Amino acid sequence: MRKPLVAAFFALAIAGAGAAPAVAAPVTAAPAATEKADALKADALKAGAAKADAKAASPTLQAVTLAGTVALSNCSGSVVRFPNSLDTDPALVLTNGHCLETGFPEPGEVIVNRASSRTFGLLNSAGTRVATLRASKIAYSTMTDTDATIYQLTTTYGAIRSSYGISPLTVQNTHPTVGTAITVASGYWKRLYSCNIDGFVYRMKEGDWTWKDSVRYTSACQTIGGTSGSPVIDQATGNVVAVNNTGNEDGQSCTVNNPCEIDAGGNVTVRQGINYAQQTYQFPACFTTRNQLNLSAAGCTLPKP
Q1: Which residues contact 263 (CB under 8 A, 6 or more apart)?
Q2: Residue 102 phi/psi, 5° resolution?
């Protein structure tokens, strides 16, 4: 589980990773073609038209920033809204279940509507802390089937936008797809990790906990301790599709910090160095009027107490 580790801190310091967030290198346009014979010009025009058609068919990738992410005392997180949330609704913060201030929820445990006064450092696009937000309660938290905590704040989305110019991230209400270009945005480290969704894991086991339909990243997302709870953002839509939570560090099987994959047939696979997240599309159906949790709402499939 991606909570802060002393080793991770020293590795980051040595590598100088505390500098500005990592960003993709800019794509350089191909140089203009030199003049050729008329026949070759015709071929070039056809090729250019085909290339333009292909570009138009591809999703336009957005520049993901740290705006709306938060730093917790031990993890990362983000201010989130659901598709039907209003500016006047109390704002929510999404992080992991294992980032809960009271410790890891037990297998099968679901915590709802518990008072909390936890604070969060709100970041702008450059990763600068611009405000301290405070929770009023833990709206929902579990490490069963998923690994997520949602805090309700003492302020609204509209008040945050008015005071700091920062909008919440929207949680997508549909299942993401393989190959989606994503960015894991860590408020704790003020760092971005970009890769793609490599696949989905039928069951993932780590220690005593089991999660369903987990997101597996391609190897480019080398997340570390402290990135737990980071929003996983679809680069084409800017929406949150998952919450970053773990990775296999040592090649062990199904132990803490070494999750294993289990397929529908019970076969176990270990992928050392590969990292994972838990999907979040299930949450919008469970938060209804004024962002209040309703586990009995139609379409809500989250684990219940």
Answers
A1: 202, 203, 269
A2: -95, 5
The backbone torsions φ and ψ at residue 93, rounded to the nearest 5 degrees and listed phi first, read -120, 130
Q: Are 183 and 192 in contact (CB under 8 A)?
A: yes
For 284, how many CA atoms within 13 A lie in the half-sphere containing its CB? 20
pLDDT per residue as tens digits for the range 184-209: 999 999 999 999 999 999 999 999 99
Alpha helices in the chain, H assignment, sequence order: 6-15, 38-57, 157-164
> Which residue shows structure tokens 């690994």?
147
169: tokens are 């991230």
Give 178's contacts (C-beta < 8 A, 6+ positions apart).
197, 198, 199, 200
**What is the C-alpha separation between 64 and 207, in angstroms, rounded?**
33
* Distance, CA of 78 to CA of 190 (rounded, Å): 12
Q: What is the pLDDT of residues 58-78, one digit of tens each?
A: 456 778 999 999 999 999 999
Token pair 């408020």 is found at 187
Closest CA to 172 of 163, 164, 180: 180
